[in-house]
Amino acid sequence: MNYQTIIEEVSKEIKLTKDEGVVASYIDELKKINPEKFGVHLVTTNNAHFFYGDSNEKFSLQSIAKVFSFAYAYRIFGEKIWSRVGVEPSGTSFNSLLQLEHDAGIPRNPFINAGAIVICDILVSHLKDPKNELLDFVKGLSDCKDIDYCDKTALSEKQTGYRNAALINLMKAFGNIENDIELVLDFYFDLCSIKMSCKELSETFLFFANQGKHPRTDAEILTLSQAKRINAIMQTCGFYDEAGEFSYKVGLPGKSGVGGGIVALHPNKYSIAVWSPRLNKKGNSYRGIQFLELFTTKTEMSIF
Ligand code: GLU
User: Fold this and answer.
1) Staple 142 to which of 40, 203, 221, 239, CB 3.0 to 4.6 Å?
2) Minimum CA distance residue for ligand 1 atom 7
3) Residue whose CA is closest, atom 4 of ligand 1?
4) End-to-end alpha-carbon separation of the chain, Å?
């Protein structure tokens, strides 16, 4: 499969069309990004790399980072985790309060904001130094060591994080948050602020395509069953209220974030990250979705 030719063809093709998305504006730091940025990086399970555009430039992961915190918590606590969070697609926006009220403070899945906040609470309860331990876990997933939080972005989100504050308060009222609210929210904002390039993102997600094993050392990061389950949750819940359409159009498990990144993977084949900051109405990168749809069409490979 000539991934490089297809990546270049598809990138050039979509750049000829109008980008109808809008950069996320509810977090001040995200507004500052040049909306024309566009990068792609694909890495295969046997370590072949293919890339295009701004693939080495770091951007804010936002919700994509929720997969890391969830994987880490699942690795440590196993099935116990499911008493605090579910595995159903939400069918509502990622920060919906209505649904949480209806579900008595148990978030539908770990990738909506409420679910990721509960996972942060679990990590805060059980780790001595959650911020550094999580970062070490993420760094250990690949050979990229230059990965860090962005304090500016975390602070910027904290200043306008009213809905997240409302979500955590509601869950605390239902008894689904154990720790001090501010401590957990700060950790959540730090998590979302992690920055990576498309290259780093595709590399750190490759173990999900490699049956849960580190792609270079073969060390077990997650069991085969855990990796399969997280891929299933990415497939059904990874794209806000557009997960069905993403499955239909692209046919790969993945996760998006309001920083304009999308990462997707083909089990036993590759992991691919795309970054383009303007978002469609559902909060997913407009060009990122367009790119992946054409990419899986031209490669004629999806999991279905
Ligand atoms: N930090 C963002 C928030 O909580 C994450 C949103 C996202 O990427 O979905 O609003």
Assistant:
1) 203
2) 63
3) 113
4) 18
- Residue 297 CB partners (closer than 8 Å, separation 6+): none
- DSSP state letters, 70-94: HHHHHHHHGGGGGGT---S--SS-T
Q: Which domains are assigned to the chain?
A: 3-62+194-299 (3.40.710.10), 63-192 (3.40.710.10)
**β-sheet bridge partners, residue 271:** 43, 265
* Residue 155 CB partners (closer than 8 Å, separation 6+): 189
Q: Tokens representing 69?
A: 């915190």
Q: Strand 195-196 and strand 261-266: pairing?
A: unpaired
Buried b (16+ CB within 10 A) or exposed e, 85-109: bbeebbebbbbbeebbeebebbbbb
Cα–ligand 1 centroid distance for 293 (angstroms): 23
Query: Per the structure block, which two tokens stand in for 6?
Result: 């297809």
Could you tell me whether strands 278-279 and 270-275 are parallel, antiparallel, or unpaired per DSSP bridges?
unpaired
| Residue whose entry in the numeric block shows the structure tokens 């001595």 | 128
Centre of ligand 1 from the C-alpha of residue 45, in Å: 29
Ligand 1 contacts (CB < 6 A) are 62-63, 94-95, 113, 157, 164, 192, 257-258
- State in Å: Cα 204 to ligand 1 middle: 20
Q: Which amino acid is at 292?
A: L
Residue 59, strand partner residues: 196
